[in-house]
Amino acid sequence: MNISKLRTTWDESLVDFHHRMLSIVAPQIELFDGSYWVKSNGGKAENYYVNLLTPFICHGILFENFVTNAEEQRFAEEVVYPAFKEVEQLFGLKPLILPLLPPHNASDKHWFCYSEKVEKEVLRCLDSWKR
Fold first, then answer.
1. Whole-model pTM?
2. Are the CB atoms for 14 and 6 separated by under 8 Å?
């Protein structure tokens, strides 16, 4: 199923809900719908990752953690590392990538927790849905 078709229990678009929650915790973040770009660059990470990493040769810095735990190891080995190597071979330079989260605790459960503001809003939505 297309993620844009998913709805919350209270019948709000999951995409709209996500954007609303993000605006609560980080109103300064500008949102960008990359669906068209992803589709036009192959639709799957193994097809578009070289193009995703290319701008970070000289036009910016990618802040990202490529956690190589059991869950993500395969993705890193099959998609990220080959794309990184291909970009380096194409341009003779490595993409500029810095850790988004502290590397020593990027998998810490803290990073998957919601703020109290988000919790209150979800509870408010659930409460109004039950009425």
1. 0.72
2. yes
